[in-house]
Amino acid sequence: MIEVVRPGPLATVQDLGRPGYAHLGVPRSGAADAPSLRLANRLVGNPEGAAGIEFTLGGAVLRFRSPAWISVTGAPLDVRLDGRPHGMNAPVHVPEGGVLHLGAPTRGLRSYLAVRGGLTCEKTLGSRSTDLLSRLGPPPLAPGTRLTFGGTDAPMAVDHAPVPVLPDAPVLRVVPGPRDDWFAPDALSVLTSAPYTVTPTGNRVGVRLEGPALVRAREGELASEGMVTGALQVPPNGNPILFLTDHPTTGGYPVLAVVRTHDLPLAAQLRPGVTVRFRLS
Amino acid sequence: MRTVRRAGDGGLLVETAGLDDAHRLHRALRAAAFPGVTDIVPGERTVLLVAEPDVCDLDRLASRVAALEAGAAEAEDAPPVEIPVRYDGEDLGEVAELAGLSVREVVERHAAAEYSVAYLGFSPGFGYLTGLDAALRVPRRASPRTSVPTGSVAIAGSYTAVYPSPSPGGWRLLGRTDLTMWDVRRDPPSLLRPGLRVRFVPERSR
């Protein structure tokens, strides 16, 4: 059992979400940087979709009431077990009573902890993920939250996984549309020619960006339509919102372009204040 | 052939002739069960398909979807869901004033219409119902309530809806229902689904 001493700014239980319910208004949810959670799980011999913890800007303290194998991935931060530093992206054995400290990430936003056996809190609609928009799944971790985990006989085959360093100046590849025809003819070149700044108001629903305004060519309201993760939705003020995993399933603002699936993990690591560029591909 | 737009490298947004066509296409796409498609989401004039790009060839999916015959798909044949309502909402008086009707007329008109679930969104199980009497089309409140209770029956613009869970909201409240619109332990969790017909039944007259 893991006891949360301090969760940091925001920590939630996440697996790979609950696809298949979007027509009922249920976001997919799940780890915002899914490959980091998958990696954390592989490192401790779990199925890739086992539930772990998603930390936002680190700053957490966990006490292990029972021994465990864990791994920490995602945004790089200082990992200390009973005061001793440990590497990320590698399995770590935690003895009974061990206290794990996570520092603040030096870059990126979200770090992941997997525990061998996976977190075993109750599933909602097939997933243990916390959906902050819909308030599904377990509430965000708080001081005193107790998390149970299972067991597994699966081998731990990987000692350490090399991971690419998060870029200082991230570039996200986008596919135009589906509503690029709602915008001025130069909107896509505006989007891809100047950097956009990540504002502090973002969350798992979306990243709010500030930069050159994306001007519409059409008046009026778009008939509400389904939204995908990675969509750059543009409200009337012209500043795009990049939808992450807890995004609403439908929306009425036109989407100028959509970030490629393989770049979504980078989008999930955008921290307030950094700039991001978009590139057509 | 239908217009099929790209929504990134994992999504297709299919244009439809309107809401009925969107519902027909939605049903046809569910029946077709194309491999790699994880979600099918109808909108007012579209249906979105969400696919796993590593599993699914989006170009091939797009051409199969464009050629799909949805016209023959059966119309929704389930009987209308009846939602019992206590018409005692906080905004009844204001709506009556805005509509130039008496409170009784507002209730009668709201309960007389047959509605259809256009699509769901905003929150799990929140269905946007079309079919609202034109006289009842009033704008949202200027400032939304921070918390609207579960089961609130409300109107805004051309839609009516039932709040399936407590949430902030700017719609005008006409009444309450005790019917459970959303329950994660139920399968399906949502009482409403796209295309379903709905009637509101005033509780006193039952």
UniProtKB/TrEMBL annotation, chain A:
Entry keyword annotation includes Cytoplasm: no
Q: Which UniProt keywords apply?
A: ATP-binding, Hydrolase, Nucleotide-binding, Transferase
The keyword Nucleotide-binding is annotated on this UniProt entry: yes
Provide the Carboxyltransferase domain boundaries. Answer: 23-281
GO MF terms here are: ATP binding; hydrolase activity; transferase activity
Q: Which domain of life is it from?
A: Bacteria
Give the matching InterPro entries: CT_A_B, Cyclophilin-like_dom_sf, PxpC
Q: Which NCBIfam families match?
A: urea_amlyse_rel (TIGR00724)
Q: Which protein, by its recorded name, is this?
A: Biotin-dependent carboxyltransferase family protein
- Native organism is Actinomadura harenae
Automatic annotation (TrEMBL), chain B:
- For this protein, what is the EC number? 3.5.2.9
Q: Where is the Carboxyltransferase domain?
A: 2-192
- For the protein in the UniProt heading, the enzyme class is hydrolase
Question: Mind listing the GO molecular function terms for this protein?
Answer: 5-oxoprolinase (ATP-hydrolyzing) activity; ATP binding
Chain ranges passing through the membrane = none
> Which Gene3D superfamilies does the entry link to?
3.30.1360.40, Cyclophilin-like
Source superkingdom: Bacteria
Please give the SMART domains that the UniProt record associates with this protein. AHS1 (SM00796)
Which of UniProt's keywords are assigned here? ATP-binding, Hydrolase, Nucleotide-binding
Cite the InterPro entries for this sequence.
CT_C_D, Cyclophilin-like_dom_sf, PxpB
Q: Which Pfam families match?
A: CT_C_D (PF02682)
Give the protein name, as stated in the record: 5-oxoprolinase subunit PxpB
